[in-house]
Amino acid sequence: MPKVVFLTTDGSQRVADAQVGDSVMSVAVRNGIPGIIAECGGNCSCATCHVYVSDAWLQAVGGPDDMEEDLLDMGVTDRRDGSRLSCQIRMTEEFDELTVQIPTVQP
Ligand code: FES
Description:
This protein has helices spanning 24-30, 58-61, 66-75; strands at 3-7, 13-17, 50-53, 83-85, 98-101. The chain is α+β, with helices and mostly antiparallel strands. It is globular and about 35 Å long. FE2/S2 (inorganic) cluster binds at residues 25, 38-40, 42-49, 85, 87.
């Protein structure tokens, strides 16, 4: 079972179990990770599930598609290289210990 490592805004680290096929957003919500609001429920329309994928995982996770790219451009306060909408990242076995940082502000 792959795990997601969330680096939270208070500087702590939370590790949560994921099922293959889960979105990172759904793992966060299920585990009460603070800072992931997910207002639209994963429909790629709110940007309140923004995370920063850690540098070590950037290549494996890949970049956003066009729709996500537009929403990141318009809806995120502090966009960086690793910015992704966590509802658009699907867990695989290979993503074990995928590490994402929660932004201090959403969206
Ligand atoms: Fe709304 Fe991800 S939950 S864009």
